C-alpha cells in the first residue's frame, strides 16, 4: 500500500527501464516496513522469484544499494522455480508454511520465465492470461496476498502505455482482457 494492493499487479515496460531495480527497492521496503517512493509500506514476508538474474548478480545489485544483509531475514529469494501450475503450487506451499503473522508479497521477474513456453498450437495471449489467472486465483485463496509480475514490452516508443503493453513481444492485451485478472496494470518507461 498505496502502490501495491491485494491481488495481482502487472508491471510492464521495455527491457532495461528499471523494473527489477524498482522491485528490489520494493522488496527491501516491504520486508523492513520502510518507505517506498516516499510512502510508508506495511511490513510483509517476501518471496522474490528472480528468474532473470542469478544469485551472484542479485547480490552485487543489493550491495550497490548499500543494504545490510540482516535486513533480508523475511525475504526468500529463488533463482530457479517451476513454471505455470507447478510454480503456483510451490508458491501455495510457501504461503501455507510461513507464519501468518504478517501479509505476503510475491515478486515474479518475469512473466515470460514463469509461464509455460509458447506452444505452436496456442497463442501467446492465452498463455499469458492463463498464467496471470492462476496467480489471481491464488490471491483469492490467501487474504492480503499481493503478487507483482514483471513483464517486458516492446522497445518501441508509444504514446499510449496500454497500447505499448499490447505491442509486447510476449503479447499482453490489457483492458478489458486482463482487467478481470490483474488488479493493477502499471508501466515503467525511461524519459
Describe this structure in words.
This protein has helices at residues 19-32, 55-64, 84-97, 111-114, 124-141, 161-166, and strands at residues 7-13, 35-36, 39-40, 45-50, 75-78, 104-109, 146-152, 184-187. With 191 residues, it is an alpha/beta fold. It is 35% helix and 20% strand. The longest helix has 18 residues, at 124-141. The two termini are 25 Å apart. It has a six-stranded parallel sheet, sandwiched between helices. Strands 2-3 form a two-stranded antiparallel ribbon. Residues 160-177 have low confidence and may be disordered. It is globular and about 45 Å long.
Question: What's a quick, concise take on this entry?
Answer:
The protein is an alpha/beta fold.
Features:
alpha/beta; two-stranded antiparallel sheet; globular; 20% strand; 6-stranded parallel β-sheet; 191 residues; 8 strands
The dominant shape is: globular
Q: How many distinct helices? A: 6
Number of DSSP strand runs: 8
| Percent strand | 15-25%
User: What value does the average pLDDT take?
Assistant: 80
Largest beta sheet: what is the strand line-up? 5-4-6-7-1-8
Radius of gyration: 16 Å
* Beginning-to-end CA distance, first to last residue: 25 Å
Helix content range: 25-40%
Uncertain stretches of 5 or more adjacent residues: 160-177
Structural classification? alpha/beta
User: Could you state the order of secondary-structure elements as H and E?
Assistant: EHEEEHEHEHHEHE
Biggest beta-sheet profile: 6 strands, parallel
Amino acid at each position: 500500500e498505496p502502490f501495491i494492493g491485494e491481488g495481482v499487479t502487472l508491471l510492464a515496460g521495455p527491457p532495461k527501464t528499471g523494473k527489477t531495480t524498482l522491485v528490489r527497492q520494493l522488496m527491501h521496503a516491504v520486508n523492513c516496513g520502510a518507505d517506498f517512493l516516499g510512502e510508508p509500506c506495511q511490513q510483509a514476508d517476501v518471496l522474490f522469484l528472480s528468474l532473470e538474474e542469478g544469485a551472484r548478480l542479485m547480490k552485487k545489485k543489493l550491495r550497490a544499494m548499500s543494504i545490510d544483509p540482516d535486513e533480508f531475514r523475511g525475504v526468500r529469494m529463488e533463482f530457479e522455480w517451476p513454471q505455470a501450475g507447478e510454480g503456483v503450487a510451490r508458491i501455495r506451499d510457501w504461503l501455507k508454511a510461513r507464519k501468518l503473522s504478517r501479509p505476503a508479497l510475491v515478486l515474479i521477474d518475469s512473466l515470460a520465465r514463469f509461464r509455460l513456453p509458447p506452444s505452436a498450437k496456442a497463442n501467446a495471449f492465452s498463455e499469458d492470461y492463463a498464467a496471470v489467472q492462476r496467480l489471481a486465483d491464488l490471491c483469492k485463496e490467501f487474504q492480503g496476498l499481493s503478487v507483482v509480475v514483471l513483464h517486458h514490452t516492446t522497445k518501441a516508443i508509444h504514446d499510449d502505455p496500454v497500447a505499448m503493453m499490447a505491442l509486447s513481444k510476449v503479447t499482453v492485451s490489457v483492458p478489458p482482457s486482463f482487467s478481470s485478472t490483474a488488479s493493477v496494470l502499471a508501466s515503467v518507461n525511461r524519459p
